[in-house]
Amino acid sequence: MKTGAKTARNGPPPLDSGSNPGLAAIALLGRLDKPTDGVRDYCSLLSQAFLRRGDRLDLAELRWEDQGWVKSLWQLWRDSRGWTGRWVLFQYTALMWSRKGFPVGALAVLGILRLRGTKLCIVFHDISNDSRSGMKQRIRVAFQYWTMRTALRWATRSVLTVPLKQVPWLPRNTQKAVFIPVGANFPEIDHKIENAAASLPLAPTVAVFGITGGATGAEEIEDIVYAVKQAKSKVARLRVMIIGRGSAEREGILRKRLDGSEIELQVLGLLPAEEIRKTLAGASAMLCVRGYISTRRGNAIAGIVCGLPVAGYSGSETGFPITEAGLLLYDKRDRDGLADGLCRILTDDKLRGELRMRSLTAAQKYFSWDSIAAQFHAFLVNSGEFQRE
Question: Is the pLDDT of residue 38 over 70?
């Protein structure tokens, strides 16, 4: 069991009965995702935002992939003796609590936390699974939906990272769940919105944050190449900047596909949080082809928080409040629409300025960590006053 903001081994420190720490909660995480772990980044930044408002969020880990389930559950049983009455924000993805997508371990952990008398809040980072081809995959998805419904039933409160009406397994009219979007996985940016309509850099730069592996990633590369080649016909000295997970692994094929196009390609791979922020803030626009834009996917939100106009795909989870940002959205696989949107952003100064302003305003109102922490406080402490939709 590893805990604390940087995770120590003896559980979250006990509450000081002589002080008033405000809301004091624990965020419980499972298996570490490599090479990057967005859920851990989420919890760390949320913890910092809790602290700024006078609340407290301690981080705890159940690293069952290293210790095995028996030892890990026994350690949790011992460490959770002092958690009675405290809010535990259980972070859920199927692969955080299982190796192959059958998260039985999640229910075992929740069972211990219920026996310890904690106040359970499940934070669902997994919402739906559209890949149901094959009998094994259909069984896996059905089991995951059953697990999430069971977890919701056992919890005192639940947080979902997309609007409730977009969640296929959620019971209708539930009163214990609420929608709170995720933020960007880096610290806040101090923007001056009145100066938001910044001019393009000398070389117009299109940012792409993350590329998926396998056949899906190959489709994403084709989308990127098609869109930027179309933009190059309208814009001189175009630069494409690829960062994040999967970018380094795909550099070779990207260079091959862009060979002879006179498009400058910059592949930066995995970067520290501060570098991601600085790099995106210096771009002209963001191209989002990694699935569809959603309030639970941090790549588009990172661009929005950096004030970028975004061209991307819409899907079943695309809705308010992310649609308040500076987005040009197109149906999945509409490469012509996507390319046209990117060209419009790069060539129309007025449009680009308007989209940038919308992104900055939405970032401050909906996707800042201070706003997200305030929503958690309202839901967990003053749930009767919380706006659910």
Answer: yes
